[in-house]
Amino acid sequence: MPTVILVRHGRSTANADGVLAGWSPGIALDDSGRDQAAALAARLAALPLAAAVTSPLQRCRETIRPLLDTRPELPVHTEDRIGECRYGDWTGRKLAELTDQPLWATVQRYPSAAVFPGEGGESIRAMQSRAVDAVREWNDRIEAEYGPDALYLMCSHGDIIKSIAAEALGMHLDFFQRLAVDPCSVTVIRYASQRPFVLRLGDTGELAGLAPRERPAGQDEDDAVVGGGAGAR
């Protein structure tokens, strides 16, 4: 199965102001986020990406814009299911105001039970389910079009990426808050036929080592490398 490169969007104006943006319209990257997006395109330069899939929200589309400017031939698709969690009445509020809410403790310690209040608020379980379904379906689509060794990119949001990584790691959703993905960080998962392999988690460094490499003779795609392997050459 393909390898998905999950990119969290660059720092947004809402991130800088400590606001829970959710699906609020008009949330753009700030100056730092635009610099991060430009650097991302350079970090990905050595990788043969088959396609890019993005959340429909502005901050994600702006994050991949420099990449698309350097690779105008790269197919790009929009996927609502990797859009931000729907935070309901919490949307647009300062995080500092939300820490006193009873639900805050649930979100932190027992997120599988958390349901965001108000019209349109969703549960964290539902968020994870739709995001994981989207990744699995895009894996099938990318493999069918580009082959099992294809690399493709998904640009999404912090809680979405953490929930996808938790599922790939076999973690209960209640532990997903133990993961961290900074703005414009990269989390990389290779989906073999029997299990996923998490190759990077919240990485902000170089990415050239993710380029496809020849599998050692006799090693199945589902095999973990005993002893850790030799790494990228």
Q: Features of this protein?
A:
disordered C terminus; single chain; globular; six-stranded mixed β-sheet; 7 helices; 33% helix; Rossmann fold; alpha/beta
What's this model, at a glance?
With 233 residues, the protein is α/β, with parallel strands linked by helices. Helices cover 33% and strands 15% of the residues. It has helices at 13-17, 31-43, 58-70, 95-98, 102-109, 124-146, 158-168, and strands spanning 3-8, 49-54, 76-78, 151-156, 186-191, 196-203.
Question: How would you describe what is shown here?
Answer:
One of its GO terms (biological process) is negative regulation of glycolytic process. InterPro entries: His_Pase_superF_clade-1, His_PPase_superfam, Phosphoglycerate_Mutase, Phosphomutase_MSMEG4193_put. It comes from Actinacidiphila oryziradicis. GO terms for molecular function: fructose-2,6-bisphosphate 2-phosphatase activity. With 233 residues, the protein is α/β, with parallel strands linked by helices. It has a single domain (3-207), classed as Phosphoglycerate mutase-like (Rossmann fold, 3-Layer(aba) Sandwich). The chain is built from seven helices and six strands; from the N terminus they run E-H-H-E-H-E-H-H-H-E-H-E-E. It has helices at 13-17, 31-43, 58-70, 95-98, 102-109, 124-146, 158-168, and strands at residues 3-8, 49-54, 76-78, 151-156, 186-191, 196-203. A six-stranded mixed beta sheet has the order 3-2-4-1-5-6, sandwiched between helices. Helix 2 packs across helix 3 (58-70) and helix 6 packs across helix 7. The longest helix has 23 residues, at 124-146. The radius of gyration is 18 Å and the shape is globular.
